[in-house]
Every structure is written in C-alpha cells, then in structure tokens.
Amino acid sequence: MTSKVKISIFSISLTIIVLVFLIVMMVMEMARDRKTIAYIIAALLVISCGFALYYTPMELKATESQLEICRSIAIKPIPYSAVESVTLCPPTMAEKRLFASGGFFGYWGWFSEPGIGKYFAYYGKSSDCFLITLKSGKKYVLGCENAPQMVDFISSRLK
C-alpha cells in the first residue's frame, strides 16, 4: 500500500515565503556589495534546503514486512517486527519543536507534546497523522492521505 503525503496550505505558504525572503535578502546584499553577508544567506539557504530535501516526507509505502518513509533523498525503513503499536493520532498544537521544521517543507524533526512525549515527525498535515511506537520506545508521528487505511494495513501485519 502506498499513500502520498499531502502538504498543508500553511506549510506551502510558509515555505514559499521563507524561500522568497532569503533569496530577496541575498540579492539585496549583493546589490549593496556586501558579498560576505550574501554568501552567509546563500549558505543558510543551501543548508535549510538540504535538510528539507533529506527529511521532507513524500509518501509512505507499506509492504508485507516493513513501512518505508519515502523522503526526497532517502528512504527510512521501519520493520513491522520493531513496531509495538500503531494508532491514529493527530498532533495537537501544544507540541514543542525540539529540533524540527514547523511547516518549512512540511513537518519533520524532533517534537515533544504532553500526550505523546518525545517523537520524530514526518507529515504534511496534522489531520492526516498516526503514531507508531517501536518496541525500543522510539515514537514516530507519520502522515499520509489515507491514514486510517494505512493504520489498518500496518496493524494487520503486526505480530
């Protein structure tokens, strides 16, 4: 089963605003002949986009043996043998970003919230989310278009 990650309108807007802002600032600093500042902004832009390309979820693919988080550059596999539980669980707005993107190219990174605790997120819209708890205690909040069907599919493969 494969399901796309749908990015929210807020996240798309935030991403465009941040990128346009950084590019305009870089161009303005170059026009003012402040190349050092322009290079710093360019480096910030490249680093930010690099993290986003690595972590932004594109789709979730559930096979017979594992869940694959397909990101722009890499795939993160989660074998079902390591999964303790999977439940529908949209994050609340009470979440704290520990080291995360709160909308820049989606939501990804380390978050913490009272009801869940510390978790790593890969989602585009909070309404499409579910929680995977591993036997090791690690938690992932994932999101995709067909979250209830994905939860059912994964649940049916847990031992």
Describe the structure.
By secondary structure, the protein is α+β, with helices and mostly antiparallel strands. Helices cover 33% and strands 38% of the residues. The protein is built from three helices and ten strands, in the order E-H-H-E-E-E-E-E-E-E-E-E-H. Helix 1 packs antiparallel against helix 2 (35-55). The relative contact order is 0.20.
Name its key features.
alpha+beta, six-stranded mixed beta sheet, about 160 residues, 10 strands, four-stranded antiparallel beta sheet
Poorly predicted tracts of residues: none
SSE ordering: EHHEEEEEEEEEH
Largest pleated sheet: 6 strands, mixed
Q: Which term fits the overall shape?
A: elongated
Q: Rg, please?
A: 18 Å
Overall pLDDT confidence: 93
Total number of helices:
3
In total, the number of strands is: 10
Distance between the termini: 18 Å
Strand order of the largest sheet: 5-9-10-8-7-6
Structural class determined from secondary elements: alpha+beta
In terms of DSSP E residues, the strand content is 35-45%
Q: Percentage of helical residues?
A: 25-40%
Short description:
By secondary structure, this protein is of the alpha+beta class. Helix content is 33%, strand content 38%.
Describe the SSE topology.
Blueprint: E1 2-4, H1 9-31, H2 35-55, E2 57-62, E3 66-71, E4 75-79, E5 83-88, E6 96-103, E7 106-113, E8 117-123, E9 129-134, E10 139-143, H3 147-155
Helix pairs in contact: 1-2
